[in-house]
What does this fold into?
Amino acid sequence: MKKVPLMLGLAAAVCSLPACQKDLEETPTPQAVAANASRSDQLAAQDWHQTGLTVNTVSGDKAVTADLFSHVSPGTLDQSVTFQAGGVYTVLKGGAASPLVGRWQLNPASDSVIVTLPGQVRRLAVTELSPTSLRLTFTDAAVNGAVSTYTSVYSH
It folds into this structure.
């Protein structure tokens, strides 16, 4: 007689396991929530740290790509970049005592960001934005006709 309640309890537990598993599967992960956030919210989610810098220069029919990250002085790299929700942009260059503070604005198409710092305004193309990675490009035309595209890679 004691086996019947035990068997009923065991059967109830086994039947409830799939229901618990389904509840666990439907809970979104923090990465999924961040991936579904607006691009503006993804930019402002955390500080970004520069992990790469390349330049691609095209002059006439010649193109040269170089990885600058390991060759430039740490003082010229972005140690930390912050896009705050209110439009405040902060960049701390490696070795700098205090950060540069300016403004940022994402364009309506969310494919470029305008960064305004004291003495400079730059439009940076947002070529990649995910919860863990940010890739910004800036194109500069030289007087001699060469065009250089700088790509900065950031992560958290």
Q: What stands out?
A: DSSP finds three helices and nine strands in the chain. The first strand starts at residue 49 and ends at 59. Residues 3-34 form one domain.
